[in-house]
Amino acid sequence: MGFARTCSVALVGVEGVVVEVQADLEPGVAAFTLVGLPDKSLVESRDRVRAAVVNSGAEWPQKKLTVGLSPASVPKSGSGFDLAVACAVLGATELIDPREIADLVLIGELGLDGRVRPVRGVLPAVLAAAEAGYRQVVVPEQTAAEASLVPGISVLGVRSLRQLIAVLTDAPVPEEEPAGEGRPDAMLAGLMVPGAGLGAGLAADADRGSLPDLADVAGQQGARMALEVAAAGRHHLLLTGPPGAGKTMLAERLPAILPPLTKQEALEVTAVHSVAGILPPGQPLVSTPPYCAPHHSATMQSLVGGGNGLPRPGAVSLAHCGVLFLDEAPEFTGHALDALRQPLESGHVVVARAAGVVRLPARFLMVLAANPCPCGRHTLNGAGCECPASVIRRYQARLSGPLLDRVDLRVEVEPVSRQALLGSGCRGEATADVAERVCAARERAAARLAGTPWTTNSEVPGHELRTRWQVAPGALAAVERDLERGLLTARGLDRVLRVAWTVADLADHDRPEEEDVAMALELRTGIARGAPLVFGGGR
C-alpha cells in the first residue's frame, strides 16, 4: 500500500482555501476514484492526469487508486488541481519521495502530453497559501511572475510534469521548447476568457500617458471641477445633460486623474482580474485604476456577480479601486441599479447562491450619465422636445431616490458653446495638472485620517465629521436651512460634509470654510449657491 499527500488551493470567489490532495494505492482491480466534492471539470482530471503521467515517461499504477480532496465540504472546481493530483499519485508509487511534496503547494492544469498549462486565479491562490503558512509553490511558468508578487513565497515555474519530476528527484531538468517566435502560444489560452471583461476600451494596465487627456474636453468648467472633486475624495457622480454635451468624454478621462494604486490595492485588483480571466499575459500586476463601462442591457448578475455554481466577479468587482461608468443610466433595469446600493455603502458585495455565499471586493467610484428625457432635448431652448411631462417624470424616476441619495455630486452638463468649441486658446487644463492637485488633496486627507480605518473623505462616517473634524464656525448655516426645509436628508448632510472636506483639501484649507461648504452644497443639490467653480486658478 502506498500513500502520499500534497497541497493545492480551491478558490471561493477571490478568496482561497488550501486543499490537501491525498493519494492512496491499494491492491485490487485497477481503478481511479476522485472524492472530495469535485465539479465536472475536476472529475475529468482523472483522464488528463493519467495521460500526462504516461506521456511524461512515468508508469501508471495498475492498482486501486483513490484521490481525496480535503476538506471535503469545500466545493472544488477548475482544472488547477491536476498538477497536485499527479504528484500525489507519483508520490504514492514512490517515484517521488512523498516527503518532498508534503508541504508543497501545486497549481496548474495538465495537458495530455504532460505540459503544464496556466490557470486563472494564481495570485489569490498563492496569497491564500502564504496566509496559511506555506512557503513553496509550483505554478505554470507563464504565471510565475504573477505568483512572485506575493512576498515571502518561493516560486517554481515549470513548463511540464517531466520538468517537475526531474526537480523533485534531483535528475537533470529537460528542456521544453517554447512556442516559436511569431507563433501563438496555445498554453496561454486559459488565462483570458473571451467575454469575461466588461471594459470599454480603456484597459486597466494601459500606460497613463496613453489615456485620453482632459484637455480635449472643451468648456464644461463646472463638470471638470466636479470630476476633480470626485477623484480627490472618491465621491460618486451623476452627470445629466443633452446628448453630445461631453458626459462620456468626461467619464473616460476620470481614471487618468486618479492616483496610482497602492501596493495593497494593486494586489486586490490583480486578484479580481485574475479570477475573472481578464488579466493580460505578460502583465502580472495592475497598477492603474481600472475602468469598467457595461452596456445598459447588462443584467443584475453581470453587475454584482453571478454565474453557474459559485458566483464570479461582476462589473462592480472588476471596477474595484477604479471607475464604474454607467452610461445611459435610466436605461438600466431598476433591479440592476438598486442592486448597487449595498456595494456603494459597504465597499463589497455579498452574493448568495445555492452553491454558496461569496464576498467580493467592490470599492469603486461610480459615475452615472443620463439624458434629461427620452429624446434628450428637454433642457435645450427651441430644440423641439415633444416628450409629454408624464413621460419625462417617468423617465427621470428610473433612477430611484435611495440610489441618488448615495450619489455625492450631481452636475448639469450644458451644451458646449460655439466659442468654447471653435475658439482659439480654449483648450482646457491638461490631465497631468489636475492629477497633481488630486494627489496633493489625497495626501492631505490621508495625513488627517492617519491612524483611522479610512483613507479618503468619502469613507468617513458622518458622526466623526460632526464631532471629531468640525467645519469653521457658521459655515453650516445654509446646510441647516436646507435640512429644515427637507431639501437634505440625514445621509445627504453627511455627504455634504464629506464633499466639503474634499473641497477644502483641494483648496489647501485647514478645515472647510463657508465657501467650501457652499460649493459642496451646490454639487450635492445642483442648486447654484454662488460658489467659485475653479481650482488651481485662484479662488
Account of the 3D structure:
This protein has 539 residues and is α/β, with parallel strands linked by helices. The protein is 35% helix and 15% strand. The protein is built from 23 helices and 16 strands. It has helices spanning 40-43, 45-55, 82-92, 98-101, 122-131, 144-147, 161-168, 221-233, 247-252, 254-257, 263-276, 300-304, 315-318, 334-338, 341-346, 389-396, 401-404, 418-422, 431-448, 462-467, 477-485, 490-506, 514-525; strands at 2-12, 15-26, 31-35, 64-70, 105-106, 109-110, 116-117, 136-140, 154-158, 237-240, 291-292, 323-326, 348-353, 356-361, 365-370, 409-412. The strands form 5 sheets. The protein has a 5-stranded parallel sheet with strand order 11-12-15-10-16. Helix 2 (45-55) crosses helix 3 (82-92), helix 19 crosses helix 22 (490-506) and helix 22 crosses helix 23. The protein is elongated. It starts with a strand and ends in a 14-residue tail after the last helix. Pfam families: ChlI (PF13541), Mg_chelatase (PF01078), Mg_chelatase_C (PF13335). This is YifB family Mg chelatase-like AAA ATPase. Residues 233-417 form the AAA+ ATPase domain.
